[in-house]
Amino acid sequence: MSFPRAKPGLPISAAAHAGLLAATLIAFAQAPKFAETPETVPIEVVSDQQLNQIMKGEKTARAVKPAQRAEKVAEQVETHPHPPQAEAKRDIPPPPPSFKRVAEPNADDAPEKPAKEPPTPPKRVAALTPEPPTRPAPTPKPIPAPPVKPQVKAAPEPDEDKPDDAEIVKPKPPVKPKLEKVEKETPIPPKPTEKPKETPRLKTDEVAKLLQQKKLDKTAEKAEDGKEAEKSDKPKSAESKSGKPKSGDESAPKSKFSAANIANLLSHEAPQQRASIGRERTQLASLGAPTATAAKMSPSLQGRIDSYTVEHYRKCWATTLSMNAMTYVPRVEFRLSPVGALEGEPRLLNPSSNPIEKARGEQALAAVRRCSPMQIPAEFTPYYDYWRVTELDMKEDM
Amino acid sequence: MNPAEIATSPLAGQAAEITIWTMFWGAHIVVKAVMIGLLAASVWCWAIIVDKTLLLRRARRAMDRFDENFWSGNSLDELYNKVSERPTTGTASLFVAAMREWKRSVQNPGSSFMGLQTRLDKVLDVSIGREIEKLESNLLVLATVASASPFIGLFGTVWGIMTAFRSIAASKNTSLAVVAPGIAEALFATAIGLFAAIPALIAYNKLQSDVVKSQGRMETFADEFSAILSRQIDQTAGGRDRAA
Fold first, then answer.
1. Cα B237 from Cα B229, distance rounded (Å)
2. Closest by alpha carbon to A157, among A189, A205, A119, A116?
3. Could you tell me which residues of chain A have a Cβ less than 8 Å from any Cβ in chain B?
4. Which of A2, A13, A31 minimises the CB distance to B87?
């Protein structure tokens, strides 16, 4: 009942697959390559005619989008937003570059001063006296000021300050630090502060020095007030520069202003055109003049060019092609550069195997080489395309 | 020729060349597994195809031979003695099974003929089923491979293309020369899948139809033989009745 179990299937199948695999490995060992096809490049054909007419405008040219004209690229300036400042009270001059950090301890001491006013003044004076060499200016100013203008301008200033600042601040318009304000109310600030400002113009430094040396008592009272006020207001500027810091306050610019000076402020450079600036330059393509036409080559000019070329090279080959072979006329092709120099090698278009004719061909090529830089008349230059490639039949009897 | 030699030979050694071997070797591990699996499936399929073809041919030949003997006019007992000496196949095995049942019933004097016809039919049916089962075993493998291997190959291809695109993205180079090898490797998996599936499908259809043909032949024989035995039963039963 059982069929004889001969099962040759598996070995047969395995062998067949192995064979097939080997066959494919051999058959596909090399993938056939595609024929090399050069990449296609879109080409627009420009005929000689169009080239000769190149000056002519193109009516179908793309319209240029109207844009703001810019001839110059704008400089890019980074603008940083200023941090919001606290309410500016107009008396504050900008803090000058830190000249003296040393002076600040005095300013820091300020809060202490008012607490014990009477004792401090002498100390201050003593402290100030050694300083004069470094800062002669500050001390003198306060002193001379009081006699002259304290009353005169002290009056107006408080008035000005009052409306602007809070009532509490009235007495000390210049003093900014708020800690000091409250404490300094006790001394009479308005007058001393005024004094320094006015003084510089009226009084010389010499007087100040003399006074400084002689009168320490007075300075103790007034100079101190003044200095304290100054130090607190503008400690550095007042000390470093004698006249300017004080004049820097409100009153100074007013007095200096005059209409006549405007001219000085103006630029002395002659006005000149300034290029309009933009983010990028506007590039206008030249479309050519719509009515212009380029020179066209006429048949006569063509004939002239031909004859000129032949004449030029005939001189060379007439002498060279001495061998008598009337049957063979070497035909030479060569290229010229725009200035008439030979470009590349001349080529014989009808080479011959006959030794004599071969020699004649060689001579023709040599003739072209010898004559080669050809003078190009100016009238020919626009038609370079025409005479760029030249073919010459070197006949004896031309 | 050794594949490794081919791959490393100067002929195929150029980097740009893509041989079958480099395509397999450069593929992702999953794709490799798919390829190997499909190749194994193909080998198995062909083994089944060869075996089944041979088996069916032998069965057909045996049935032809047995039919000749059966219709030659010899007595059934002689034929039975002759056939049952060797293992049988096809209709011969049907004949043997039926005759055995017949003899068992006839030789036993006490047994009745009442259910013999039914028993014979049963025995013939069972034998047909057994023979058919023997013939069409493993044919389902062909059907499965035929329907599944294209999908498996496609899976390998998709996976390979996925990895190819990932490496393209990583190398940031999209020129066809870079893309092509990865895709060729990936497509190789589908090629093997189809290579396995197409013969399997064709062979399955062919073998299945052959099996059906054999089955029909056996059923016909079973019917004829059953009719003959039925006649014998009637004759024997009549004889016994008369004897009784």
1. 12
2. A189
3. 1-4, 6-10, 12-14, 16-17, 21-22, 24-26, 28-31
4. A2
pLDDT digits over B104-129, tens only?
Answer: 877 776 666 778 888 889 999 999 99
Residues 6+ apart with CB under 8 A from A338: A376, A381, A384
The phi, psi pair for B57, rounded to 5°, reads: -65, -45
**Which residue of A21, A24, A30 is in closest CB contact with B17?**
A30
Query: Measured between alpha carbons, how far apart are the two ends of chain A, in Å?
Result: 112
Q: How far apart are CA A392 and CA A255, in angstroms?
A: 94
Report whether B156 contacts B193 (CB < 8 A): yes
Cα B185 versus chain centre, distance: 32
pTM (2 d.p.): 0.44
If you count residue pairs, one on A and one on B, with CB atoms under 8 Å apart, how many are there?
76
ipTM: 0.73
Q: Which residues of B touch A30 (CB under 8 A)?
A: 11-12, 17, 19
pLDDT at A88: 59
Domain extent listing, chain A: 104-252, 299-393
Class of domain A299-393: alpha beta
Choose among A346, A339, A338: nearest CA to A316: A346
CA Rg value for chain A:
51
Task: Give the residue among A98, A102, A231 at the shortest CA–CA distance from A177.
Answer: A231
* Distance from C-alpha of B52 to C-alpha of B209, rounded to nearest angstrom: 12
> Rounded CA gap, A108 and A179, in Å?
10
Distance from CA of A3 to the nearest CA of B (A): 7
3-state secondary structure of A72: strand
From the list B21, B46, B51, the residue facing A25 with the nearest CB is B21
Contact assessment for residue B6 and residue A25, using Cβ atoms and an 8 Å cutoff: yes
Selection from A330, A304, A326 nearest residue A317 by Cα:
A330
Chain A residues within 8 A of B88 when measuring between CB atoms: 1
- Write the residue in B12, B39, B42 that is nearest to A29 by C-beta: B12
Distance spanning both ends of chain B, measured CA to CA: 83
Residues of B with Cβ-Cβ distance to A2 under 8 angstroms: 87
Residues A159, A171 contacting (CB under 8 angstroms): no
Q: What is the DSSP string of B63-103?
A: HHHHHHHHTTT--HHHHHHHHTTS---THHHHHHHHHHHHH
* Structural tokens at position A148: 């002259």
State the pLDDT confidence band at B155, using cuts at 50, 70 and 90.
very high
| Record: contact B47-A10, CB cut-off 8 A | yes
Shortest Cα distance, chain A CAs vs residue B53, angstroms: 9
Opening angle at CA B184, ends B180 and B186, nearest 5: 120
Q: How confident is the model at residue A154 (pLDDT cuts 50, 70, 90)?
A: very low
Phi, psi angle pair for A332, to nearest 5°: -115, 140
Min Cα separation A312/chain B (Å) = 55
H helix runs in A185-330, sequence order: 190-202, 205-214, 216-218, 224-233, 235-240, 243-247, 251-256, 262-265, 299-320
DSSP for A192-203, written as a single string? HHHHHHHHHHHS
Strand, coil or helix: A391: strand
> Residue B214, SS3?
helix
User: Cβ(A207)–Cβ(A189) under 8 Å?
Assistant: no
Q: Where is average pLDDT lowest: A14-28, B9-23, B44-58?
A: B9-23
